[in-house]
């Protein structure tokens, strides 16, 4: 079955620690995205990648970093520089930048 | 520029109809619609393209008005399963394949039995 997976589903970290969220897809999609979702804010784009070894900042990239070493994988690191990291994080992929997006189940990050 | 959705929230009884609007301040080339159930990932409903026909998905359909730079999502004879938050998304720049989608803040729909 093709799809997109994120792990873990829930993550708890202490303030000041970096944490990496996993995102894997087996849909053979070129484009991958990371979104942050807060109540009432919709989906805000953190980073996106159209091709391996290349990625661009989205609207709220400060305090986050990504890598795209493989087509299937697009991990997101939430660094200690992110002032308010507690949120629901969604990863998505699509064939092209404006195609239908397939979302993973999300990771809910809580920083204590 | 983020598309603007209205209303922000709707409460309906099962069987009633609803309309959700998505407006853009710039020319629209395409509009995406997604539904997200609480605690779950958004699920794709449909894409409407400039010059394309009105689309449908179950009893959910949508229209695209180029002049008004607006798309509307119609939910007919709503079912309990329609509850969730509906998002529209529009390309940031236009028809470029490498463009990215900007999402609205969402419309929360709650269906009562």
Which features characterize this protein?
heterodimer, A: 112 residues, mainly beta, 4-stranded antiparallel sheet, globular, B: 113 residues, 6-stranded mixed sheet, 5-stranded antiparallel sheet
Task: Kindly summarize this structure in a few lines.
The complex is a heterodimer of chains A (112) and B (113). Chain A has strands spanning 4-7, 10-13, 19-25, 31-37, 43-51, 54-57, 64-66, 76-78, 87-94, 102-103, 107-111. Chain A is mainly beta and 112 residues long.
Detailed description of the structure:
The complex is a heterodimer of chains A (112) and B (113). Chain A has 112 residues and is mainly β. Chain A is 0% helix and 50% strand. Chain A contains no helices and eleven strands. In chain A, the strands form two sheets. In chain A, strands 2, 4, 5, 6, 9, 10 and 11 form a seven-stranded mixed β-sheet that branches. In chain A, a hairpin with a 5-residue loop joins strand 4 and strand 5. Chain A starts with a strand and ends with a strand. The model of chain A has no long low-confidence stretch (mean pLDDT 93). Chain B is mostly beta strands and 113 residues long. Helices cover 0% and strands 53% of the residues of chain B. Chain B has no helices and eleven strands. In chain B, strands 2, 4, 5, 9, 10 and 11 form a six-stranded mixed β-sheet that branches. In chain B, strands 1-3-8-7-6 form a five-stranded antiparallel β-sheet, with no helix packed on it. Chain B is globular, with a radius of gyration of 14 Å. The model of chain B has no long low-confidence stretch (mean pLDDT 88). The interface between A and B is medium-sized, with 21 and 25 residues.
User: What is the strand content of chain A?
Assistant: over 45%
The helix-strand sequence of chain B is: EEEEEEEEEEE
Which percent bin holds the helix content of chain A?
under 10%
Q: Output the helix-strand order of chain A.
A: EEEEEEEEEEE
